[in-house]
Amino acid sequence: MLRNIQCKYCYRGKIIGLGGKKRDIKMAALNSSIFKNKKAVAGVISVFTVLFVVALIVFKPWLLFVDKHVDDEIPAAVAAHATMTPAQPSESEAMTPPKAQSRQGQFISHEHETSGTATLIVDADGKKKLVLTDLATSNGPDVHVWLSKAPVIPGKDGWFVAKDHEHFDVAPIKGNIGNQVYDLPDDVNFDEWTSVVLWCDDFNVSFGAAELS
Fold this sequence. Notes:
Layout: H1 2-59, E1 69-71, H2 76-83, E2 103-109, E3 115-122, E4 128-136, E5 143-148, E6 167-172, E7 177-183, E8 195-200, E9 205-211
Parallel strand pairs: 1-7
Antiparallel strand pairs: 2-3, 2-9, 3-4, 4-7, 5-6, 5-8, 8-9
Region (Disordered): 82-107
Protein name: Electron transporter
InterPro entries: DM13_domain
């Protein structure tokens, strides 16, 4: 009788022991699942953090809130033209300025509010230059000054037109505020280009453009 009781309790002990092991296995599986989920979440957060940092480096959004002023010396021919009014003579008919501007146009706004004047000139030394006077636009990442064969279209319809037309990349823009002078190669033909475009390479959009005439 005692042996049966012992066996009975022994058997029950085994059942209890097995139940405990099952609970331990379930808890271990649950902990493993939680750990894997935490690793997955941490991995996703890491990826998004890297992408966010890369986006900041590439697009530099803070530039839109920082002005960069430029004050290049404006060639005499452009400065004289800017101060003349229809009532004023060109000082003296006998005086010949050093090859006055060949082409000129006023900037209009595209993706960002833009104003100022673009002028193509040959200076006193016979050097070709693009002069931007009283320029005011937004700062931005990777903005370039283009000579373009694109038409200048007001409003949003004109934001992306220049990318579909031939252009000559003069240089990265020196700044978004002030007077700036850019040297041009001797073989640039002023008559080939119809506009000057401030083009943002990062966003493939025109900040502003001036039609030359």
